[in-house]
Amino acid sequence: MKRHPILLTIFLILAGISACIDPFNPPEVNNSDRYLVYDGYLQANGTDTSWITLSRTQRLQETFKPMPEIAASVSVHSASGQAYTFLPDPVQPGVYYLPPADFNRAEPYRLSIKLRDGKTYESSEQHLLISPDIDSISYEIKGNDGVQVYAHTHDPAGKTLFYKWTYDETWEYAAPMVSMLEVIDKKIVPREISVFKCWDDFRATNINVFTTATLSKDVVRFQPIVYIPISTNKLYWKYSINVKQQALSREGFDYWTEIARNTETNGSIFDPFPSQVSGNITCVTDPKEKVFGYFTGGVTKSERIFITEALGRSPVCFGVDTMSGRDVLNSTMLISNQLPFPDGRYIVAPGNCLDCRTQGGTLNRPSFWR
Question: What's residue 200's pLDDT?
Answer without folding.
Answer: 98
